[in-house]
Amino acid sequence: MSKIKLITVLALLFFVFSTFPAQDKTIDSLKKALQNSKIHDTTKLLNIGNLIDQTSSEDSRFQILNDMMGKIAVKNLKTAKQEDLHTKYTKYLAAYYSNLAEHYKLKRDVVKAMSSIDKSISLFRSVKAYDEMNFVVINKGIFYSQINDKEKAIQCLFSALKYFEKSPDENRQEIIYINSTIATLYADQNMHEKAISYFRKTIDYFNSKKKLVGEDEYRLSEALINCGTSYLAIKKYDEAINYFNKALAYFKKTQNNIYTSVSLGKIAQVKMEEGKFQEAGSLLKEALTIDEDELSTANTYINLGDLLYRKKEYAQSESYLSDGFSLSKKINNLQLQEKAAGLLLKVSKENGNFKKALEVYEFQAKLNDSSDIEASKNALAQQQLRYDFEKKQLNLELHAERKTAVKNNWLIALSGALLSALLGGYFYYRNNKQKQEITLLEKDRIKQKLLLSQMNPHFIFNSIDNIQSLIINQKDTVAISYLDSFSKLTRQILENSSENYISLEEEIDMIKNYLSIQQLLYDDKFDFSINIENISDTESIFIPPMLAQPFIENAIKHGIRNKIEKGMIKIVFSLHQEKLFFEVIDNGVGFNDENKQPDHKSMAMKITRERLLNYTRNKDFEIISENKLDSEKKVKGAKIIFEIPYICEN
Asked: Where do the TPR repeats start and stop (predicted)?
């Protein structure tokens, strides 16, 4: 049973259970042994707990054993009269819920996993088992970090750290483990200065010990590499080299070739940043001679590709990067895949290998989409957890109010009933309001995802087909120009869709790239212009991202697509009386065309209207649509204008 100190196991039972990992039939043998009435239930639980510790949570037998432990603990907890037995069974039940949380984590059931963790913490607290309780709190913090709720992860870890620091001499191992975990969290958030301070606490602890025993040297070296990596990230190369060299010395001494290769690769990265390519090459070649597994080999190949790219030896660079890329996909290492793909895209362009560049770009798009979907799941999980917690708190408060009212006399009961009704109405209103806010947050997240649908497969594949056609027709310069615009546009949409506000300059740049791609798709059937009126600094004005794009798309699709003569799209951003307006004008068929009826409005435009209403909080907000008429009252185009909410940096 994890993190609980257990007494020595009976020799006979230990002999029976020790064969568990190797034999599937052991579960049946265990069930028979548990039916032996001569063996006390605490002894049975003790041995089940030991077996759980020896079994991976991914093993199907893990959950079978945990269910056994839970059933025995629950059965005895109901009848246990002695205080010491009640405490033991409570601890085992708490351990059951802690293990159950691991099962739900594997199934990606965030709400049930967190609920199980909270039950475990509550049970340990009820019997004042504060050490065990805080170990679960640490696991809760790690789980929060896995779903990208870094703020709550830090809160949990510091809560546990505060507890263990009350007796620092007795809990040094626990304190160091928490410090190391906090450091890793800070590093993940690119808060490297804070990460370094906690990595150094871990390093100082091991250096202060008179003798390093067990895995102490390994853990010290791991902290040295992590600390060096944070120094590398903030470009403090001397400090980074110092820590990497210390780690390298230990791993060479213990003949740990995998981590020796990692250390050599880290030092090589520093040398590359310093422009010392020859030294970096020697280190990477040394790493290549000792690589034992696909992970370290892939890492070395990618580092060699990076080095050769910096040296402008593009052909060799592409060879190493391709090998590293293939290995990273084989072992499903996303971090290495991202690094290799980014470098391969650059090298392929330099080599004129546009087919390879397109393949890598398509892979990057899928990788970014997968990351964004995962981030969306994590955000939704966070909202669900907050909703469940707040709902539970409200129910507890209501229950407490009702319980208090019953104890009062009739007069107080009448007053209490009235007060309870008022409170109930208030809490009911508050609960509904919270539900609405959570729904709005989830809806906004869905809208952000729908914004990404502007880069739909039809648009992507048409763009790629057109670029490929340019390459086939040997229009390489034009192809590279459009490929750069397409790459930049995709990156902008993926990055900006998660932001609430971006600068007006970024929005304009994204519109330019979008219109350039549309010109290619429509065979240059239209020209465009973007005008800025009464705005001196577009970098200091911030607006919600991608509000204009659906209306521009509509002007192209329904306004000028079927025109024989060349079309014109005019975009205007103007500031009048401290109000920012967006205007799109085309010389197309106007709003009387049958394709421009209300039923044909795109989903993107509907969502944009809702977003604008949500941002402005103005019920009178409207989007003005009108035809442009010539002197003879004939339609010569269309215009849409609306106010955009904005924030001024000043």
From this structure: 221-254
- Determine the average pLDDT of the residues in 296-324: 88
| Closest alpha carbon to 88 in 43, 28, 140, 22 | 43
Longest Cα–Cα distance of the chain, Å, equals 105
Top-confidence residue, 437 or 116: 116
Helix (H, G, I), strand (E, B) or coil at 152: helix
**String of DSSP letters for 421-452:** HHHHHHHHHHHHHHHHHHHHHHHHHHHHHHHH
Name the most confidently modeled range: 322-326, 434-438, 572-576. Answer: 572-576
Sheet containing 647-648: give its strands across: 502-503, 541-543, 647-648
Total Cβ atoms within 10 A of residue 199: 29
Cβ pair 310, 346 in contact under 8 A: no
Taking the C-alpha atoms of residue 272 and residue 284, their distance in angstroms, rounded to an integer, is 11
CATH superfamily of 499-648: Histidine kinase-like ATPase, C-terminal domain (3.30.565.10)
Average pLDDT in the 305-325 region?
Answer: 88
> Which 3-state string (H, E, C) describes 363-420?
HHHHHHHHHHHHHHHHHHHHHHHHHHHHHHHHHHHHHHHHHHHHCCCHHHHHHHHHHH
* Contact status, residue 124 vs residue 94, Cβ threshold 8 Å: yes
Name the phi and psi angles at 258, rounded to 5: -60, -50
Distance CA 489, CA 507 (A): 11
Measured in degrees and rounded to the nearest 5, phi and psi for residue 571 equal -110, 135
One-letter amino acid at 425 equals G
| Token pair listed for 122 | 């509550």
Please state, in angstroms and rounded to a whole number, the distance separating the CA atoms of residues 297 and 264: 12
Residue 535 buriedness (CB in 10 A; 0-12 / 13-18 / 19+): middle
Alpha carbon separation from 387 to 268, 375, 441, 447, 579 (Å, rounded)? 48, 18, 11, 20, 37
The residue whose two tokens read 């056994």 is: 68
Token pair for 377: 């799941």
Angstrom distance (rounded) from CA 581 to CA 413:
59
C-alpha distance from residue 620 to each of 88, 237, 584, 612, 642 (Å): 65, 58, 21, 12, 12
Quote the pLDDT of residue 123. 92
Domain range annotation of the chain: 9-100, 277-336+343-351, 499-648
- Scanning 254-313, the segments in alpha helix (DSSP H) are 257-273, 277-290, 294-310
Residues whose CB falls within 8 Å of the CB of residue 377, separated by 6 or more in sequence, listed in order:
108
What are the pLDDT digits (tens) for 358-407?
A: 666 666 666 554 444 444 444 444 444 444 444 455 455 555 555 555 55
CA distances from 32 to 18, 26, 68, 149 (A): 16, 10, 12, 44
Q: CA angle, 429 as apex, 606 and 383 as ends, to 5°?
A: 55
Q: Pick from 456, 497, 460: which is nearest to 361 by CA?
A: 460
Q: Which residues contact 474 (CB under 8 A, 6 or more apart)?
A: none
| CA 164 – CA 179 distance, rounded (Å) | 11
Q: What is the pLDDT of residues 458-514, one digit of tens each?
A: 567 667 777 777 788 777 787 787 788 778 777 777 777 767 788 999 999 989 988
Question: How far, CA to CA in Å, does 27 sit from each of 11, 19, 51, 56, 68?
Answer: 18, 10, 11, 15, 10
